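Lecture 7 notes: from sequence to structure.

We start with a single chain of 852 residues. Read the sequence below before looking at the structure.
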Amino acid sequence: MPSNLADLLSAYERQPDPELAAALIGHVRRALLERDGTQIADAELRALLSIASSTGFRRAFTHEQRYEDYEPTIRAALLHLRYSIGDMLADSARLLPDRSYLEEGDGERRSLTFAQTALRCGIIAHALRAGMTNATAPRVAVFSGNTLEGALCDLACLVHRIFITPLSVHLDEDALAKIFRRLEITTVLVDTEDRLRHVLRVITAHDLEVTPLFIGAGDPEEKGVERFDAFVARNREKALPVIADLPSNTSRKGNARSASEYVGAATVMFTSGSTGEPKGVCFSQLNMVSKRFARAAALPDVGDDETLVAFLPLFHTFGRFLELQGMLFWGGRYVFAGNPGREALFARMQEFRPTGMISIPQRWAELREEAERSGSLAEAGGGRLRWGLSAAGYLSPATFRYFHREGVALCSGFGMTEATGGILMTPPDVYEEDSVGIPLPGIEVGLSEDGEMKMRGPYVAAGLPQSADGVVQESVEDWVATGDLFTRSESGHYRIVDRVKDIYKNSRGQTIAPLAVENRFRDVPGIRRCFLAGDGRSHNTLLIVLDDEAPVLQGVTSLRQRETYFNEIVRAVNVDLPVYERILDFTLLENDFSQEEGELTPKGSLNRKRIAERYGEEIDRMYRERARTYHIAGLRLQIPLWMLRDIGCTERDLGVRPEGLYNAATKTLLRVSAGRSEQYWRIGDLEYQLGGASVDLGRLCRQPAGWTGNAALENFLPCHEGWDVSLENVLAVYPLQNLESTSRPQAGKARDSEASAPGEEKADARASVRGSIGTALLQLHRLLALIYTADTPTALQLFDDIGAALQSVPRRHVSLLRTRIGACAWHPEEAVRIRAYETLLLFDPDPGDSAP
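Now the structure, written as tokens:
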């Protein structure tokens, strides 16, 4: 056996062997932890880290050895070298230069190798610095969903020591302004028009010197806002020093980074506090890098030819640390799904064939349903899925067992932002029902006398220093309380039994502070107190305890009148709540909560667990339906509850009128009537041929083939750019001018295209598509809506814009446009019919494929 590290490394590289792996770790352990006087060169330690990240090396150790020997020794090496995210990217660019790292699974389908990613990160970082108009260092925020451009900027800042914070797109204006000011943000990246307007309102109202840059599709509609890629291109030439060979320059030379900088705040993320105020958590390079090696030690078989399909956003710790940085560590491929909808996710899984999936329980349950529907998990999931993690909620043991039988090492887990993600995880080969696992390597946990878990370790991060924002400082050297109560089994597995903090997660893993929502109803006439329900559910509901002595309720005895009054109050509160916190339904209670029944504590606060148990029937009644059904003109229309939530309505706001559906909250009407003949119905500004007397408006509003050109539908319900959603029984779509023609268009099948999930951004109460679709599609939608309703001269002029659009828009937009323009072949005006045909002919010499 070789006696020095250099010879051990050479021997292992020639012939990987478990004994040599143990000898390597033992040699470094004695030098760095036991300090036996052995000298180790930095280059040798760097080579060890490259080897130690491989699956073969990690498999050489038993479970106990990975905890007791591997992780502590690797952590000591990281501290000695001050090994950073930049070093990790430099190593990947050097060892795997041509391997694909970041890919777009939607839209332009861009792909970047590790070497290209390193180069692009350097260009972005230098452009950000060069773009500052004064000597101030750039400080960046990302206010965006999961996008390749946002991820690149995040990596660029982490690699090149520019402060950055990814922010939840659900933050309201006050919270966003506080964060911008508190962190002295200079630049913010935004991905949609709606979010851009939101940011601009914050900047203007609070007089902030923050520059917004647009990373969405197309040019922003707001004047004076520059695209991020144009900003980078413009400032790249000014960047000094000139960038020559960035993959090598990303690596720190000779421990140039100071020890204090290595453990200091490189980035901040925010989590919901129990009062609803965002709580900032500071992460150092040590936090992020040590977590990657620790998580890898707990997943020894992960790391060979990995692919993840990404839908978790950067402001989610698992999306940023475990997925984006995890694929950087493992040398894997990270594919951006484009949107978080189940249809889009499954379509991307079938196309890109991921090896792992990190998700909320709801997605795992849906994947099982899809696999059973399609006949096999291989067909539904792409055929390569072999590992996964379910966290941020409860997943039934039956679903865990299903995936285990299918050969997927699905783990359960528990984590929080302060732990750089995960704290506990079930080992891949040891599952216990209802367990959230054992501590990950590198973290120490304990239970207080009342069962609350506390933690400490190298990747437990510190809070922002105490400030006027109410953010509390925590020392990483001290125990940090999790706010959750656990029990520990004899096997060492932990189970959650209750929460200390007044927070919960919904079925999508989003954290909700119920007290912050309930406080909005404080001192409202007629309300004695209320209770927000929604733990583990798809949306929130409310129990309202009536104050019958309030003057506003005197003489108001009918249930309908009282419900109307409280519905107005709930609707008003919803306007100022993020989408995922909104209330869809409520139940009125005559009797107050009491201490005698255990519903109130001696201090008068709510005993949430007891109330949820005692009023379980009332709460369950509000969740019996997933959609509301309406019958108009012989047509059955379904609207999913998430859609009502997105526009800030309650279930009581929508009703049937003779002309169609009426929304009392937004004072808008969606006209619905019978069409030209059987199977045809007018919905808004378009006519739909259906395969039966029913339609799912949720699908219609998520699939552009269903809503594009229908301005009335856009005005009534939130529409989305969801190309994978099936329209099911929608056979064809026509402009209303067709009603004036005696011709009968041949029914064609509406194309099943691509999918989207309901948008999660905070929107006005009024429905709008603009927050969740790209600028290019929005412009096409408006052009089509105008052509269908304009007079003949205007329609002919608009075809010039349509013709220009056909030359530059993505192919899937072209297919949709051609179908819609083809429908104009039955326009009552001959000039419009001819112009529609000419437009299609100029674009494609075979217009036969264009008609619906």
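The chain is about 40% helix and 20% strand. Keep this in mind for problem set 3.
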